[in-house]
Amino acid sequence: MRGKKTRRAFLATSIAVAGTIVGTTAIKRNVTSASLSATIPERLLGNTGVKVPILGLGGAGQTPLSWDNAEKQAVAIIQRALELGIRYFDTAADYGPSEDYLGKVLPNYRQRLFLASKTAARDRDGAWRELERSLNRLKTDYLDLWQLHHVSFEAELDKIFAKDGAARALEEAKQQKLVRFVGITGHHEPDIIAEGLRRYAFDTALIPVNAADKHHPRPFIPQVLPVARQKNVGIIAMKVPAYGRLFKPGVLDGMHQAFGYALSQPGVHCAVIAAETVAQLESNIGVAQAFQPLDQNALAEIEQRTTTAWQDNTFFRAWT
Question: Which of 11, 43, 81, 206 is the Cys-Cys partner for 269 at CB 3.0 to 4.6 Å?
Fold first, then answer.
């Protein structure tokens, strides 16, 4: 049985490791306080009391942030995100080198950021091990948000909330101030996420909010968002452009429609979107900066345009 870790023990480990990377100057660029000013609209994240930009940078999504041997590309994206006002960074323990790459850049700006990671462990001890590793790799002594990653089945919920389940680690980490908020994520079955929100007072849920979702036989938007709104849970949208598939000929015109659709859903507070290149990141940020909620006619038109493409744009629903 793994003993309860104290915050002091974590801090000692984090400080010892941080010195090997944070002092490196070769990969640094000058990100001033002015460049970190909020140029992206913000929303209150559920009942957390924290305002976050409506766009955050995802640490996976088949992009350099999750590729091995892509440090230069990843660091360039992270630095540019900071320069353009991104303050929300999302990663996970199993996103390859993503946490390591973020840990090379973010520590100098930590107090200005909202940093989220995830654990795929369903047991208390496994979750603690992943949290310790995440903190070390990210070179931080706390996470703003720690999430249970890709929860897909009821049996997983039962394991999470068992006596020695991961929910115990969530509680202990909050008590020791290693994490501020806790969340649940999933893109397989909306009923499982809704049930998770009923079983536990999660602060956030990270779910697909996708323009093709309406046409899926088990859609996330009508099944999860009402439960979240009732409990004032912060909703973070993912899979917004369906890895770019929504932009195939004959579907949507671009990110402005995909992002506009997701952020116009009642109860959605922000979206996490990865970027393959600096140019793509800059384009996404431009869309977020110009965002205005879409009216019902515009939303209906977008839904109509995805009618025959919904299967291609919800392919990730099969992932568990």
Answer: 43
